UniProtKB/TrEMBL annotation, chain A:
InterPro entries: AA_ABC_Transporter_Permease, MetI-like, MetI-like_sf. It is a multi-pass membrane protein. The chain crosses the membrane at residues 20-41, 62-82, 147-178, 190-211. The keyword Isomerase does not apply. The keyword Transmembrane applies. It is found in: Cell membrane. The lineage of its organism: Bacteria, Bacillati, Actinomycetota, Actinomycetes, Streptosporangiales. Keywords: Cell membrane, Membrane, Transmembrane, Transmembrane helix, Transport. This is ABC transporter permease. It comes from Actinomadura parmotrematis. Gene3D superfamilies: MetI-like.
Automatic annotation (TrEMBL), chain B:
Coiled coil: none annotated. GO terms for molecular function: ATP binding. Keywords: Amino-acid transport, ATP-binding, Cell membrane, Membrane, Nucleotide-binding, Translocase, Transport. It comes from the Bacteria. Residues 2-241 form the ABC transporter domain. This is ATP-binding cassette domain-containing protein. Pfam families: ABC_tran, NIL. SUPFAM superfamilies: ACT-like, P-loop containing nucleoside triphosphate hydrolases.
Amino acid sequence: MTWDEIWPLLRTATGETLYMTGASAALAGVLGLLLGVLLVLSDRGGLLPAPALNKGLGFVVNIGRSLPYLILMVALIPFTRFVAGSSYGNTAMIVPLTVGAAPFYARLVETALREVDPGVVAAARAMGASRRELVVKVLLREARPGLVAGLTVTVIALLGYTAMAGTVGAGGLGYLAISYGYERFETKVMVATVVVLIVLVQLVQMVGDLVTRRLTHK
Amino acid sequence: MIQIEKLRKVYRDRGRAVTAVDDVDLTVADGEVFGVLGRSGAGKSTLLRCVNLLERPDSGRVTVAGQDLLALSGGELRRARQRIGMIHQHFGLLSSRTVAGNVAFPLEVMGVPRAERGERVAELLDLVGLADHAGAHPAQISGGQKQRVGIARALAGRPKVLLSDEATSALDPETTASILALLRDLNRRLGLTVLLITHEMEVVKRICDSVAIMRDGRITEAGPVRDLLTAPGSELARDLFPLPAHAPRPGSTVVDVTFEGDSADRPFVSALAREFGIDVNILGGAVEEVGGARVGRLRVELPGGPEENAARLAHLRAQGLTVEVAP
Ligand SMILES: Nc1ncnc2c1ncn2[C@@H]1O[C@H](COP(=O)(O)OP(=O)(O)O)[C@@H](O)[C@H]1O
Ligand SMILES: [Mg+2]
């Protein structure tokens, strides 16, 4: 293949990867944040202790985290069909990506929230802050650097997961690398996808680090 | 201003129970600085946290400014807390907010409109001498400055009561002195009632009007500092004036003489020796500045047994000195 033939393929595949990663990162970000906050709130000694809920959530999150992504994706095919109307294609792929990344991010959110100084929370309570204010203005706000750093790790993990999208008929860089680079021995395609993936990961990490540093006042 | 009755708090943890506060009664008068002094683990923080119900006591009553806190609903309690300031050993500042942002926080909680917040924040920072640091983040200022931010923040709701949990324990002696001076000043100028807990005698000496000594969850002694220092058998006095142990020799009597105020300025030892024509042996002594006045204790040995010394001790007592015969 000539570069002229490769370029359009590469451009489309990059677009597909960005679409799948971006959409699932946004969804997993929201879901993971919610789960992480619930995990911290419901903990024994948390702001809203609920041991049963905490155990249940922890269990579900751990299941999500213990399955290799490829298996999770295949196991979720019926669910994906139910949610997305089809179990094939880029949009359908967003469902398992989100389900895989949300528990991962939830644990990172939990860790970030636990690192908030309990003395600050106590001080805010002493000032008469409501639970909502404690969560939004103290916990989430103080944990921002950790939340962004965790999201950066999650986005990079998602970029990796999208490589397996080909298995369920979605596109993206991973599919391109496998179908052209591996199965048709097009070394140039393989090299090009690897380079694009490396650049993407570096970019995500750089932006993530920059934002994290901006938010840190230590 | 603050009334604590029969307060009890037990921590239960996996079958183990720790009685952190054990049947404590305490009354803090309007406008005074009241200190609770005790070693680490005595239950001081728990006691203080029960005053604004950061910890819920197992039993007892807490009344602040006439309000029975345990009878309040969630919302009412939050509003009551907005009128009870609190400062903390490790400051408890939001690292993500500037100094001004930290002081604005309680105003936001109270629902003060944004337009009015700026002015009030400036006023509060001015009060604690931090007007120049409004834009700094907590990580960029010193410990003493952080505590000043904590104090400004605690005063945002114009509280009548300030609770202080070891506010100076993380600070060096010089900074401690300046923070204590600020608290004293606020106490006088704003009529602020201060309930503080500390393990440092220095804090009691410098600013407390009254003190309670806490040990193993119980108050063992309480009252105005001046009274306690001159009260026979007082633990506070014993801690403040550590005197060398001394068993009286046969035929002599060892007495501790506590003097304060006017009596601190009179040469009562030489006067006693002259008056009765005896030799007075000084075994030890200490003089401290407490609440701006000199208070001291002297351990002396007088010749003769109890009968011979009765008149001499009466003579000392007549001068306003507190005299205790050592056992
Ligand atoms: N949250 C808690 N859970 C269990 N035990 C506690 C808790 N807080 C304090 N304690 C225990 O209660 C006792 C009193 O602690 P505290 O009030 O912090 O004392 P102080 O402030 O005088 O050092 C200690 O034995 C401490 O271990
Ligand atoms: Mg303590």
